[in-house]
C-alpha cells in the first residue's frame, strides 16, 4: 500500500504539530508545508525540529517547505490522495478546506471549521463534495479518546445505571458542561506563545465558536451515540450571552512578543486593556434535552491545565465530572445515585476492566467515584495520536467513516455559530 502524503497548510496553531508527535506507518515521512513566511511558520518548524531531535521516540519528519504568499495556489496544484491539515487562522478556513477538497485531498481540520453562521451552508457543501469524491473531512475531536470520557459514555449507555436522559428545564438543565482554558500555558514542556491575531475574535472566533465546539461534540456523542442528528430539526437555540476577559498590554506582550496593540484592535481597547470577547454561555435543546454550556478563558491556572466540569442527569443517577481542588485539578468521574444502582454499577465497572485495567468503584459517602489508574489515562497531547490513527484508518477506507459523522458535524456547528449570533444581539 503506497504511503499517504501529509500536506500542512499555514500552521498557525500548535495542534498541527501535535498530530506529528509520532510517526505513522501509513504516512510518508516527507511532509509538504505551504505557508506565508512569518512567525507562525517559524514556530511550527521549531516544534517539529524538537520532535526530530528529542532523545527518546524521536520522529523523522522531512519537511518540504514552500514559504510564500501564493501558498493556497500551491495547495490547489497538489496531486490528489494526500491529507491536508489546517490548524491556525479560523476566518476563511472553510475556503481553504474547500480548495483542498477540490484538489482531491482528505482534510483533517483543527476546530473550529467555521466561526460564523453564514458559513454553515458552505460547510454543508464541503461535506457533500467530500462524500461525492470519497474523501474524508473531519475536525480534530481528540476528546473522544479520553479515558474518562469513554467510561462516562459506557455508564450513560447502561440503562440499569443511568436510566434515560432527563429532559431538564431552564432552571435545571438536563446537561451542564463548562470549560475553562488559560491563555498563559505550557505545552510539551515549554511556554506556549500565541500570535497577535489569536486575540482578534473576528479571526480566531469567540469562545463559543472556538472551544465550545469540543463541548457540543461531547454532549451529542454522549446523548446520542451512533445516531445522526438533523441540524435543522433537532437543534433549538434558546439563549446565549458573551463577556470579555481583560488582557493588559504587558500580558499581551508576554504572549505575543508584540510591543503595542495592533491597529485592528482599536475598537476593543478600553484604556490600555484589551476586552477579549472569548467567554460565552448558551442554552439549547437537542431532541428535547435542555443543555447549558459555558466556555471561559482566564489568564493562568493556579494548578494543572485547562479544567472541565460536566453533569448529565439520568432517571436513575447523575454522572458528574469534577476537576477542582478536591480532585487536585485532575478530572474525576462521579456517580450520584437517585435509585439503588450499586449492584448494576459494580457489574458494569467489572465488565469494563477488560478494556480499562484497574478501573474500580470507590464509595465516597452518598456517591461513588470511578477510580481511573494513571497508567490508562490518555492526556491532551497523546489523544492527538489516537485520533490521527483513527482518521488515517478512514482515509484508507472512506466507507468506514461512521454515517453519523457528516450530519453531526453540521449539527455541532449549528449550535456554536448560532449561539454566537444570538450572543451578539
Mean pLDDT across residues = 94
β-strand number? 18
Give the tally of structural domains: 2
**How would you classify the helix and strand content by structural class?**
alpha/beta
Looking at CATH, which topology of the largest domain would you report?
Dihydrodipicolinate Reductase, domain 2
The quaternary state of the protein chains shown equals single chain
Give Rg in angstroms: 22 Å
Count every helix, treating DSSP H or I runs of 4 or more residues as helices.
Answer: 12
Biggest β-sheet strands, sense, barrel: 10 strands, mixed
User: Would you state the CATH class of the largest domain?
Assistant: Alpha Beta
Shape descriptor reads globular
How much beta, percentage-wise? 25-35%
The ordered H/E elements are EHEHEHEHEHEHEEEHHEHEEEEEEHEEHH
The residue ranges in which pLDDT falls below 50 over 5 or more consecutive positions are none
Q: Helix share of residues?
A: 25-40%
**Intertermini distance:** 53 Å
SSE layout and pairings?
Elements: E1 4-9, H1 15-19, E2 27-35, H2 39-53, E3 62-67, H3 71-76, E4 83-86, H4 93-102, E5 106-109, H5 120-132, E6 137-139, H6 147-156, E7 175-182, E8 186-187, E9 190-191, H7 201-204, H8 212-223, E10 235-248, H9 249-256, E11 269-270, E12 273-286, E13 289-298, E14 307-313, E15 317-322, E16 332-337, H10 342-352, E17 360-364, E18 367-371, H11 380-396, H12 405-423
Helix pairs in contact: 4-5, 5-12, 6-8, 8-12
